[in-house]
């Protein structure tokens, strides 16, 4: 917008104001003349006819970028509640906060995400460094450790912030291009499996406090998985890609996964079948006994080490009282390259694609009675264009689940990769063993929000709404509002000089403020104000105000703050028991 | 990083683990053989000699992008404290939270920032929409209002998040390319100047609670400023650019500003002198009387309207009891195009460039005795290259102040510009009057942080550190830690099986945990634990632990939680009175 256009807009406002105020005709005329001059000046600059005055501009599209969205006040009230719980558990477990920039130098992100590197959002080269938006919090954290002396670090760090992936979004399931992850990581050299158990306990605590419904922590070990692939005869260079295929067993039946292994990835069919026999297992500690009895597996050093570590982990999880939440799931593989030890995912009922039952994934190879096969959940592609600019295809949202709501694993080499790369590979890299978890805040919001709406939760925390029954009393209202606010009571009022009482009640009810405080000229002279408590209820799924014949309580103005603070209603809101 | 390199890293870890555990020679050999195969496979792929195994990679630079930085645990503890205060005031004043994406469609940002549009960070075109990082919160907010039915909106919305400007950073003064702004905006049709007074009161409340030292709210009105320019004879098309020059009077003497007006911007010297006579004024309500007595100014419709509104505003600010914080400053102009009414900035002692005194800006044109002129504060350019890629010059940080710590104004046309542009300019645009303020969180941090360090503030909130005096007692430690955490007591322990007591004390002291809880085998059998309170003090500017001969208190394990919670120390931390 040209500076002249700003000036035109401002003079137009002034012109309208003056006419509204019935100002002198001469003043109105002067502004009108000036407007004319400005419009002619603009026309001369843009070459348009002066009559249109810049109105023939191209239409702009009012929308957020693909895969992103605004969160309005009610949604943010819920999201803040979720974030508060997560952060509180993070600090209760001894975590400290870290904040890194939203973008990184491209070379920091390069080579950390395997096949998914194509999803990285690059910034335009505007002269300077090559930059890209962060893809997760883990790589920036490892870069931070490497910059700040990795070897001596012993830390529990948490980060809450947005990360970016140019993926196909499924907005209704909280799968976005811009999304918020809350990460907790433990770095340092400790005794085997103790930090690992601590992280799993942390995830269980958060999931319990968030009320996302029943949840399960799926758990596996990269060393066991790698051992299985070796024992089954997967060539070394195919291990990671076969691992990615196995990871899809939470949303595809085994038959499809096997096809991917053999047809797409060129694995021998017999090898695939041997893998299938292993990865169909899931369960608790008894599964460990089964593996320990497998001589072929125990002869593989990687598998043996992983199985022993899992035994130790289950012992510690017992002390943390969370074994009942764990499913040792041999099909869990996780996509990211950098994991070196245990890996895990938290899932809820909303995680799987609708109609898909992971328990039936091996239906065709199982000896159990054959249940009706679930519909193939491979997301159908629909050629739905959003804004005429995108050439990617949209997925059918009804065929996609929320996915895992938290996930992570141990990554003992990532920091060392940075220290090695920064040293040019010449000297021995400083290592720093790490383990962490990322909580998918948008996916959790997608689960919590419908319940929040159903329960009619408030969208803001305003406690008191100050009104005048008499002649406006603006100064008196402002003074009382400021006193209440200074006492920590969240208070508002209507920005009108002489508002009618019903308009003020309507404004206070829109905010669902539980206390209506009414000032009257005569009462004020006696040092009194009237307080009326407001309540809401859910009737037939609709939230509505409880009608009441209560005329309110007369309270001494000087005692109003302590009166409000002593009510059960205030104490309920203030301590967070009522939301 | 190639998948094979990941595999090499993992096998290397396994190889080292096995050697450490003194595993079978055959197992070690097997892993060694596999490693050799992998390295040969990698060499074949990359064409390197197998001996180096991929070590000759290019060295990467471990740093954050220019103008950005990490905030570590201690700093984040302080930043969270600042953010908590700001958000608390926002909700106390009736605000609701809004969150918009970090990037916007380019056409949304286009034409809103005048000469500063060149500072916008663009994203790379990767097929799809043209996107750019947000420059402030105001334009996304206006886009949100325009998308969600502007005319009916009455809202107080706040946003806290990062915004982006490709400017020359001055990191030590909190002037960054990525920085956090906390915005509060009031939208809707209300009686004149009431929301305006509310916003100014909000800024005063926040500045008082943040303890940034003495502060002043500089206040002016775009209508008065425009009227002055007209009365002085500035041509219409030069008003905005002359306005930008006037705005520099907080860091440049009048002589330099005048030179910019006449030499760079071609203004007549006599016109500039007339402007100088007006903009040198600052003060309180008496300045209004002075302006009202100026017949030439009062004959200008824009100036007259502005002066009347300022009179009303001062009346309301009286009711809010904040007039003593206000400086009606006729040189305040603000750079952004979209303001239409009052504009304001909060400044502190740290705002001005070191050695520059704005009160002396008019020294050479004043009749008062001439004080020693301040050194010319125009930032010196230094050709300091940061990373061999940037071609921009760095500014000399010692010559730059923190600048304003909060700023804003009324912008009644911005939402209407969006509704008009979305409608293609054909029909009448839906307007929504708005007023808002942006708080510069990094600048506030730059002021608060040194004081925080001086006072030896804690960097985390861990309350209790659980230790074992006996034989490790890992299970017992984990169980007690989990009980304390479940009771809301932030607790940690050392992740070792059989740690020595001094190592555990050292770890607890690193966290500055005020309660050391010590478990001993025999005591536990009697149902007892030992609690030792830890204290710190500042001596000669250094924080250190208070040495004490106290052997600790024996407490019943079953009463430990209530015992800790009843201590003055715990209550001090928990209520935030001690930081």
TrEMBL record, chains A, B:
Cross-referenced Gene3D superfamilies, in alphabetical order? Anticodon-binding domain (3.40.50.800), Bira Bifunctional Protein, Domain 2 (3.30.930.10)
- Give the span(s) annotated as Disordered: 361-400
- Does the keyword section mention Nucleotide-binding? yes
Q: Which reaction does it catalyse?
A: tRNA(His) + L-histidine + ATP = L-histidyl-tRNA(His) + AMP + diphosphate + H(+)
CDD domains under this entry?
HisRS-like_core
Gene Ontology terms: cellular component: cytosol; mitochondrion
Q: What is its EC number?
A: 6.1.1.21
Keywords associated with the record: Nucleotide-binding
What InterPro entries does the record point to? Answer: aa-tRNA-synth_II, aa-tRNA-synth_II/BPL/LPL, Anticodon-bd, Anticodon-bd_dom_sf, HisRS-like_core
Which family would the database say this protein is a member of? Answer: Belongs to the class-II aminoacyl-tRNA synthetase family.
Name by which UniProt lists this protein: histidine--tRNA ligase
Q: Which organism is it from?
A: Phlebiopsis gigantea (strain 11061_1 CR5-6)
């Amino acid at each position: 917008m040209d500076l002249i256009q700003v000036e035109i807009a401002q003079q137009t406002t002034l012109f309208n104001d003056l006419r509204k105020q019935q100002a002198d005709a001469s003043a109105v005329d002067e502004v009108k003349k000036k407007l004319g001059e400005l419009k002619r000046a603009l026309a001369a600059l843009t070459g348009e006819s002066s009559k249109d005055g810049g109105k023939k501009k191209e239409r702009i599209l009012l929308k957020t970028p693909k895969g992103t969205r605004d969160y309005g006040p009610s949604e943010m009230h819920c999201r803040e509640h979720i974030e508060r719980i997560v952060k509180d558990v993070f600090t209760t477990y001894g975590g400290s906060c870290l904040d890194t920039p939203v973008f990184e130098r491209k070379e920091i992100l390069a080579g950390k995400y395997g096949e998914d590197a194509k999803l990285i959002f690059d910034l335009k080269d505007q002269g300077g460094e090559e930059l890209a938006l962060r893809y997760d919090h883990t790589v920036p954290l490892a870069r931070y450790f490497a910059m700040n002396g990795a070897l001596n670090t012993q830390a529990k760090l948490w980060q809450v912030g947005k990360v970016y992936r140019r993926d196909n979004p499924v907005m209704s399931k909280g799968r976005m291009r811009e999304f918020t992850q809350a990460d907790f990581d433990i770095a340092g050299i400790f005794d085997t499996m103790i930090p690992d158990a601590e992280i799993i306990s942390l995830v269980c605590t958060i999931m319990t406090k968030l009320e996302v419904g029943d949840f399960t922590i799926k758990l596996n070990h990269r060393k066991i998985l790698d051992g299985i692939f070796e024992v089954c005869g997967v060539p070394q260079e195919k291990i990671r890609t076969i691992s990615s295929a196995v990871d899809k067993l939470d949303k595809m039946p085994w038959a499809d996964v096997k096809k991917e292994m053999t047809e797409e990835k060129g694995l021998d069919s017999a090898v695939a079948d041997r893998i299938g026999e292993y990865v169909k297992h899931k369960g608790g500690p008894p599964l460990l006994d089964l593996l320990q009895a497998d001589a072929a597996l125990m002869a593989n050093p990687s598998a043996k080490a992983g199985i022993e570590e899992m035994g130790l982990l289950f012992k510690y999880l017992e002390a943390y009282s969370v074994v009942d939440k764990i499913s040792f799931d041999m099909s869990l593989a996780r996509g990211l390259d950098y994991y070196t030890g245990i890996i895990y995912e938290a899932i809820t009922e909303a995680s799987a694609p609708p109609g898909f039952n992971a328990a039936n994934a091996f239906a065709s190879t199982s000896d159990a009675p054959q249940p009706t096969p679930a519909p193939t959940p491979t997301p159908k592609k629909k050629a739905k264009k959003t804004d005429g600019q995108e050439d990617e295809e949209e997925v059918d949202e009804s065929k996609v689940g929320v996915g895992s709501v938290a996930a992570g694993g141990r990554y003992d080499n990532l920091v060392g990769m940075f220290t090695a790369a920064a040293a040019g590979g010449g000297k021995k890299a400083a290592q720093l063993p790490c383990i962490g978890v990322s909580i998918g805040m948008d996916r959790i919001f997608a689960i919590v929000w419908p319940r929040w709406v159903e329960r009619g939760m408030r969208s803001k925390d305003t406690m008191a709404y100050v009104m005048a029954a008499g002649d406006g009393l603006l100064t008196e209202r402002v003074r009382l509002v400021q006193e209440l606010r200074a006492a920590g009571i969240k208070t508002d009022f209507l920005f009108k000089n002489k508002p009618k009482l019903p308009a003020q009640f309507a404004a206070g009810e829109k905010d669902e403020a539980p206390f209506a405080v009414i000032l009257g000229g005569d009462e004020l002279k006696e040092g009194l104000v009237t307080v009326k408590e407001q309540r809401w209820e859910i009737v037939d799924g609709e939230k509505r105000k409880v009608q009441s014949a209560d005329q309110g309580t007369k309270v001494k103005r000087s005692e109003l703050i302590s009166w409000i603070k002593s009510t059960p209603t205030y104490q309920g809101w203030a301590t967070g028991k009522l939301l």
